[in-house]
Design goal:
The complex is a heterodimer. Chain A is of the alpha/beta class. Chain A is about 55% helix and about 10% strand. Chain A is built from 10 helices and 5 strands; from the N terminus they run ααααβαβαβαβααβα. A 5-stranded parallel β-sheet of chain A has the order 2-1-3-4-5. The longest helix of chain A is centred in the middle third of the chain and has 22 residues. In chain A, about 40% of the residues are buried. Chain B starts with 10 loop residues before the first helix and ends in a 5-residue tail after the last strand. In chain B, a hairpin with a 5-residue loop joins β1 and β2. The N terminus of chain B is likely disordered. Chain B has 11 helices and 12 strands. In chain B, the strands form 3 sheets. In chain B, strands 2-1-5-4-3 form a 5-stranded antiparallel β-sheet. Chain B has a 5-stranded mixed β-sheet with strand order 7-9-10-12-11. Classes of the chains: A alpha/beta, B alpha+beta. The interface between A and B is large, with 35 and 36 residues.
Chain lengths: ~220, ~425
């Protein structure tokens, strides 16, 4: 990473990236991010100043009835693909296995990009993260946590109807591991709207976005 | 569920497979074809349509749409769906009768919905797999880098080793040259001294008194001894340096040659057991080692208390053979054992400060190999050079072997050495 080099103009980058997303121009989208990385933009800058705000803007445009859900799906898919490329560009294993984290969207939940951002950013910090993606069956998620004993379990849900299953996962992990349960981090829109929700569902931590989550976890779990 | 509102819809809307609603200008449901009620499981007539929508994503959106009346279509998420709340597409038509709007759900093909679900899930799976692959590749790249670094380090060390070898060979050559030059320069005046002594003896011998003649004899003996020592230095310098072609060598043959050269007295018994091996190695250095050790053993066996016996044995060891040459001579005290391998002990630590006592050098009485303390001469003195065992050690070690001695006073001595065998390839 080149934290010292000044990132390309973030606002301009966001604008061109968003235009490419809304035009459905996948090649342009890839090129824009590759160029930004060549110019020294860090993964964190790309995720937080470009990809995440762009997805928020896509959501806003849908709510303004300016785009359809098909546009939104395309934007999400391209964002996922670009994340893979950007992460690949920056990821270098330093030979150490630091803290461990398992991240998943339990059950029917599909809003996975925030979790993936957390995983990627922590990975560059030397963490060993396991990203399980969307719609992970609750039972097998719990079994994996019990078997692997990660330092952190990160769960995300964007939709209130999915909260009960997320709460079930937390309860099952706590019942199985007791005091040895991992630190449980939850995120997603319902937790932003109701700051007390995370605690009520049995989670240890919550964060408004991926950067806040990474900062919180770095703080809570300094390098092993 | 009430059928009343549907009566207000045109007849062809009632059988429409999707949701149809007639809404007032303020968004109150005036009429429905019953589909929305079926989806939500409750009445909607008379209620604001906003109450049927997902609060987070759609209520505000709907209010703006209703207010602006600009859109002809929109996507909205229904409230209370306990599965994935995918947005529904609606067409928005102005309703001249009520001043409100008619809302028609756009027809969806359930197969397309399924397909989209599959694509979304597959996309997520691919993202997971891709990320794992990236991490694995990172690990491999790291391992590769480490291997490469190790390889580079090995290459660097090998180059260093080669360089050191070159330097070592150069300095060995220089030492050889030095040894030759020095020896030659030393031998010339020595020859002159010997000549002068002989001439003095020839010319003035009869005129000299006994003491002067004794001194002259001592002088001649010392010159002889010094010449042998200089030759010894040369032998030692050469030992271990010269390399020969490995060949098949029958050690029994070597021993036979050695015994013939040594001219062993008849009363010394030589035994070899078990049968000596045949191995592939350089013959000359092995013969030299056995020659020196057997010669040493024969000499000291004769000084023991029993009938003189020398035993030569060999046993296979790791990567070669271990040879032992034992005698039943007077033995060597443990403290003196390390010194037997040293070059010119008599030079480094003269047994007597009185250099005139020439006879003492060859008296050889007392403990085998003892140093100092006036107990007697060492083996090296008896050989006249003091290099025999030093050469053994140097030759053995230059071939990667180890030489050692075991002995207790009065119980003889056993010299052993390992001799690696060339791998025949």
């Amino acid at each position: 990473m080149n934290p010292a080099s000044s990132p390309p103009d973030a606002a301009g980058l966001l604008e061109t990236w968003l235009a490419a997303l809304l035009d459905g121009d996948r090649r342009a989208a890839f090129r824009i991010i590759a160029e930004a990385q060549d110019a020294g933009a860090s993964l964190e800058q790309l995720y937080m100043q470009v990809l995440q705000p762009a997805l928020r803007e896509v959501g806003r445009l849908w709510e303004a009835n300016e785009i359809t859900v098909a546009d939104e799906h395309f934007a999400t898919a391209v964002t996922q693909a670009v994340m893979g490329r950007a992460f690949q560009q920056r990821f270098q294993w330093a030979g150490d296995e630091g803290r461990t984290l398992i991240a998943a969207c339990p059950d029917l939940e599909r809003h996975e990009i925030g979790l993936r951002m957390i995983c990627d950013l922590l990975e560059l910090d030397g963490w060993d993260t396991t990203y399980l993606g969307a719609t992970v069956p609750a039972d097998s998620l719990v079994a994996m946590v019990v078997r692997r004993r990660p330092d952190v379990l990160a769960l995300s849900t964007a939709l209130p109807p999915h909260l009960p299953r997320l709460a079930d996962v937390i309860t099952a992990v706590r019942n199985a591991l007791g005091d040895e349960a991992p630190v449980i981090l939850v995120g997603g829109r319902p937790f932003v709207e109701d700051p007390t929700l995370a605690g009520r569902l049995g989670a240890d931590l919550t964060a408004a976005d991926a950067v806040a989550a990474v900062a919180t976890l770095r703080n809570r779990l300094p390098p092993a | 569920m009430s059928d009343a509102p549907s009566a207000d819809l045109p007849g062809w809307f009632r059988g429409y497979p999707g949701i149809v609603l007639r809404l007032s200008s303020t968004g109150i449901v005036l009429a429905s074809n019953g589909r929305l009620e079926a989806e939500l499981g409750r009445d909607v007539a008379g209620a604001p349509f906003a109450a049927c929508l997902d609060d987070a994503s759609s209520v505000e959106k709907w209010r703006m749409l209703l207010h602006a009346r600009a859109a002809t279509s929109c996507e909205l998420v229904l409230a209370g769906a306990d599965t994935l709340p995918e947005p529904r597409g609606f067409s928005v038509l102005p309703d001249d009768d009520s001043g409100g709007v008619l809302l028609l759900e756009q027809q969806r093909d359930p197969r397309l919905d399924d397909l989209r679900d599959q694509v979304t899930i597959t996309n997520s799976d691919l993202a997971v797999a891709q990320r794992e692959l990236l991490k694995e590749r990172g690990r491999l790249a790291y391992a590769l880098e480490k291997l490469d670094a190790q390889y580079q380090e090995k290459r660097r060390l090998a180059a260093q080793l080669t360089q050191r070898n070159v330097e070592l060979q150069r300095s060995n050559r220089a030492l050889d040259d030095f040894a030759h030059a020095v020896s030659h320069d030393l031998k010339a005046p020595l020859r002159a001294i010997a000549n002068f002594a002989r001439w003095v003896d020839e010319d003035a011998g009869p005129a000299l008194d006994d003491e002067a003649r004794s001194h002259l004899r001592s002088l001649q003996q010392r010159v002889t001894r010094m010449r042998r020592m200089i030759d010894g230095v040369l032998d030692y310098a050469r030992a271990g340096r010269e390399r020969c072609q490995p060949e098949r060598v029958d050690v029994a043959d070597i021993v036979a040659d050695v015994l013939e050269l040594l001219d062993v007295p008849d009363d010394v018994t030589i035994t070899t057991s078990p049968p000596l091996p045949t191995l592939v190695t350089e013959r000359p250095p092995l013969q030299q080692v056995l020659h020196n050790l057997v010669g040493n053993a024969v000499k000291y066996a004769a000084r023991g208390t029993g009938p003189p016996t020398v035993r030569i044995a060999a046993a296979p060891g790791q990567g070669g053979w271990e040879f032992t040459v034992s005698d039943n001579g007077p033995g060597i005290p443990e403290a003196a054992q390390p010194a037997v391998w040293q070059l010119f002990r008599t030079l480094a630590a003269p047994t007597r400060p009185d250099d005139r006592d020439v006879a003492g050098d060859v008296s050889g009485s007392g403990t085998q190999g003892a140093m100092g303390s006036g107990a007697g001469a060492t083996r090296a003195d008896d050989e006249g050079t003091g290099v025999g065992l030093a050469i053994v050690k140097r030759l053995v070690e230059s071939r990667g072997g180890v030489a050692g001695v075991q002995s207790r006073p009065g119980e003889g001595a056993t010299f052993r050495f390992t001799w690696p065998e060339e791998t025949t390839d």
